Amino acid sequence: MNFKNLKRLVVKIGSNVLTKDNGQPDLSRMESLVKQIASLKQQKIQVILVSSGAVAFGRKELFLPDKMDTVLKKQIWASSGQVELIQTYKKLFAQEGMPIAQILVTKEDFRDRRHYLNMKNCLEGLISQNVLPIINENDTVAITELMFTDNDELASLTAAMVNADTLLLLTNVNGVYDGPPSDPGSKLIPFIGAKIPELIQAISPVKSSFGRGGMLTKLHMAKKSADLGIQVVIANGKKEDILLNILKKETEFTFFEPKTSKHSPKKWLAHAEHYFKGEVIVNEGAKNALFSEKISSLLPVGIKKMSGEFSKGDIIRIQDEFGKVLGLGKAEYSSTILGEKLGLKNQKPFIHYDYLYLFQHA
């Protein structure tokens, strides 16, 4: 396992790591993780924390009727619990002499490139001033169709945004298993290479008590992050000194080997599959050019059809003639202008290579 030295680390702590089985906050676990993060900072490792727990903290404080709308209950618990969660973190990190900042986001914050860069600049500013950013989804205002799958997705997006070299997903199992973790016959998969095999059938579909996601989400996000050049670790956050022992390789975990790092715009596009405003269908020649070893932009001459109304800067989904999704890109001009240039030669690129992300399976 080629484990690169950590320079910038995104740590995601799941709800089940921060709460006991009875739903009460596990303050001793929080305190231990805070001390470990402080130790990482002393080793000159930059840390961004993505923390679940707000809903679980709110759930212990407020009893809500079973018949209440699920999304509304989640909003109430999140808005109440986020206060206690961040206050607890502030107190614990203050004991380590570390200032913190709270950042609450929704998926909408990642859709617009300008908004995305503003958020990135804020995070970079906090890190430069040795302030620890603590990020969570703003469940209070998020609507169902625009919620993150869970904080694994948010952590993966954040790692891509800040060009982290490592993403560490802490959960309540030791990593990825070749079967249900509760099955005594299941074995931990310690290493998943850059050419990641199809493991979906082997992963337990069981979700946590307090979170929305499960191991399938973690696997999907880990694969995507590794494809972008980010090394990923899935480990058990309930183990003592887990963060420090991962660095020393003295504990069990699953490591995802990273591919070659992608440029920042491509990292943004890699997570934009639900944000596209329009679609284009390309011919076979354009498809072959895009996937050749030669660097190629998408030109109007290679586009057979388009759909949707979009402006310059919007995200576009690219398909081949058989309906297979090839990738995503940022439009260099609007749907109106593209309609006039469709199929024409000697035109400026519709999607420049620097703002083109192709799916590996295509």
Protein described:
With 362 residues, the protein is α/β, with parallel strands linked by helices. The protein has 2 domains: 260 residues, 3-Layer(aba) Sandwich (Carbamate kinase), CATH 3.40.1160; 83 residues, PUA domain (Archaeosine Trna-guanine Transglycosylase, Chain: A, domain 4, Roll). The protein is built from 12 helices and 13 strands. The strands form 2 sheets. It has an 8-stranded mixed beta sheet with strand order 3-4-2-1-5-7-8-6, sandwiched between helices. The chain has a 5-stranded mixed beta sheet with strand order 10-9-11-12-13, sandwiched between helices. α3 packs across α4 and α7 runs parallel beside α8. It is globular. The chain starts with 7 loop residues before the first strand and ends with a strand. Pathway: Amino-acid biosynthesis; L-proline biosynthesis; L-glutamate 5-semialdehyde from L-glutamate: step 1/2.
- Give the CATH topology of the largest domain: Carbamate kinase
Sum up the overall morphology in one term.
globular
Rg, Cα atoms, Å: 22 Å
The helicity comes to 25-40%
Mean pLDDT over all positions: 88
What strand order characterises the main sheet?
3-4-2-1-5-7-8-6
How does CATH name the architecture of the largest domain? 3-Layer(aba) Sandwich
Alpha-beta classification? alpha/beta
Order of helices and strands: EHHEHHEHHEHEEHEHEHEHEEEHE
CATH superfamily of the largest domain: Acetylglutamate kinase-like
Number of distinct helices:
12
Number of domains: 2
